[in-house]
Amino acid sequence: MEAQLNSLIDAVRHAAADGRTLRLRGGGTKDFWGQSLTGEVLDTRGYQGIVSYEPSELVVTARCGTPLAELEAVLDEKGQYLAFEPPHFGVGATVGGMVAAGLSGPARATAGAVRDYVLGARFINGLGEHLTFGGQVMKNVAGYDVSRLMAGSWGTLGLITEVSLKVLPVAPAEATLMIAGLAQGPALDLLHRWGGQPLPLNASTWVRDTTAQPEADYLFVRLRGAVAAVQSAIAKMSADATALGAQVQQMAHAEAAQDWRASGEQTLQFFDSPSHDACLWRLSVPQTAPVLDLPYATYIEWQGAQRWLWAPATAAVPLRELAQSVGGHATLFRASATHPELDKISGVNTPLDFVQNRIQQQLQKQFDLKGVFATGRMHPL
Q1: DSSP 193
Q2: I need a surface site. Which of 21, 31, 135, 301 has the fewest CB within 10 A?
Q3: What is the pTM of this model?
């Protein structure tokens, strides 16, 4: 792999010398996201492989081009997994892309985000220097946590070449409850109440089935933990929901696992675009945020902290104002299929304020003085 690594380093150094911009790309499964995809593509898939894996230490180190599916399969053989459940969004997702995107699945609210599991990283900065930060144990994290800063940077700070991740053992027990008949408000209230109790609540989703006649509201909750804790929680949470007039049913494990996977991968029916001009918006708000006054159908995850909806790009201003009014922000996650560039005129992300923008510029200057990775993917250039 030394030759592949040197090839990546040389590509960055030559781009810096020539004043060219590089767009880092693994499997390309997340090419739909971002303000722009400018720059010459630098394919990272050639630099792959699991460098080390210590199941007893719950640590794995892998190169950037390693297929995410391959890493998950190796962990599964040892009864371990990535607790943040990273979405693939297609065949070919890589470990480097997973960290660079910083996207987490259904368990994010309780298990944590990608960055919480990054112990160390190696990456190439904009001058072609191969740097190492962090290590393979939590105590190595000190001072500026540069390795975790790479999570969610979308390839705009440097090329992640290798990453060490904390993994977790699969829980002894798991159960999913399907709770029918709870409107959004009561469902959020119930989730907040459960969140303050010692319950093994791992993930949740609320959605209104508009295809049913009449329309029906559903709350799904996933429990993970010790066998006794899960069984006790099933009884208590079922009683709490039933007391509110809801109907509770425990789903079969295989069916539930498939649905949770589809939720994270956005292959559920809700994520099918309802019209040619509809964009998928992500509202990130505090878990305790109330029901938002929205004229659009909403899919709610993370105990209320993540709310998805389909709306035209022209709704950018009111959506962002509404999200900001409760302490959150709105992101245009997927543009429409018909005019994606036009949809992004108002910005994919909520515009940064003066202080945030200054910090962002200084960070990019420190890591990428020549602007090699300045693709404008996160914010307009």
Answers
A1: H
A2: 31
A3: 0.93
Query: Which of helix, strand or coil describes residue 119?
Result: strand
Token duo for residue 375:
């693709």
- Out of 3.30.420.40, 1.10.10.10, 3.10.20.30, 3.30.465.10, which CATH number does the structure's domain 2-169 have? 3.30.465.10
CA 82 to chain centre: 12
Contacts of 57 (CB under 8 A, 6+ apart): 136, 137
Decide which of 2.60.40, 3.30.70, 3.30.1890, 3.40.50 is the CATH code for 273-338: 3.30.70
% of the chain beyond a pLDDT of 90: 89
Tally: H helices and E strands in the chain: 11, 17
Pairwise CA distance, residues 184 & 218, whole Å: 9
- Relative to beta strand 159-166, strand 118-124 is antiparallel
Of 113, 114, 132, nearest to 123 (Cα)? 132
Please say whether the beta carbons of 339 and 353 come within 8 A: no
Rounded-to-integer distance, Cα 66 and Cα 252, Å: 33
- Its sign, for the CA torsion 158, 94, 71, 223, is positive
DSSP secondary-structure letter at 187? H
User: Rounded to an integer, what distance in angstroms lies between the CA atom of residue 295 and that of residue 292?
Assistant: 9
Q: What is the pLDDT of residues 249-299, one digit of tens each?
A: 999 999 999 999 999 999 999 999 999 999 999 999 999 999 999 999 999
